[in-house]
Amino acid sequence: MNLSNLKPAEGSIKHSKRIGRGQGSGKGGTSTRGHKGAKARSGYHSKVGFEGGQMPIYRRLPKFGFKNINRIEYVGINVDMLNKLAEEKNITVFNLDVFKQNGLISGKDRVKILGRGELNKSIEVTAHAFTAKAKQIIEDKGGKVAVIEIHKNTEE
């Protein structure tokens, strides 16, 4: 191997078109811009969504829905998932740290415990919210439920 013999693989380098370099280049004259019109001129720029004067799609379609600025997003965790973790990893106290360690939530997610599945053990659960069914399932097995208070003005 010699540094003077090195060259790129065949076909790996593609030369760009040499536009506007005279008739001999094959790209002279109009320089690939066609004849006349705004797109042939320098400094052409069209608005985002411009469709050539046709009524744009964002104006043809009706507006609908809204975004509730007071909505609180939760990550749902079902009782059957808590049961699975309790049996496999022998966990009896569930809180935000346990959920993070097991990859169920990340960062500042808020947790809501949902009522799908059954529970075989007595567990203690701390979360931001519970459904009535989930609360009943946990308490029927002798477990405890603790709600983390959510403050509207501050993020936890």
What do these coordinates show?
It contains four helices and six strands, in the order αβαβαβββαβ. It is of the alpha/beta class. The chain has a three-stranded parallel sheet. It has a three-stranded parallel sheet with strand order 2-4-6. The radius of gyration is 32 Å and the shape is elongated. The model has no long low-confidence stretch (mean pLDDT 91).
Adjacency order of strands in the biggest sheet: 1-3-5
The DSSP helix count reads 4
Apparent shape: elongated
Give the N-to-C terminal Cα separation.
Answer: 61 Å
Beta-strand percent range: 5-15%
Q: Report the order of strands and helices.
A: HEHEHEEEHE
Radius of gyration: 32 Å
Count the E strands.
6
The major beta sheet can be summarized as:
3 strands, parallel
- Poorly predicted runs of 5 or more residues: none
Structural class designation: alpha/beta
User: Overall pLDDT, averaged?
Assistant: 91
Assign a percent range to the helix content. 10-25%
What's the helix and strand layout?
Elements: H1 57-60, E1 75-78, H2 79-88, E2 93-94, H3 96-101, E3 111-114, E4 124-127, E5 129-130, H4 132-140, E6 144-147
Parallel strand pairs: 1-3, 2-4, 3-5, 4-6
In short:
This protein is an alpha/beta fold.
Question: What labels describe this entry?
Answer:
single chain, 156 residues, alpha/beta, 4 helices, 6 strands, 13% strand
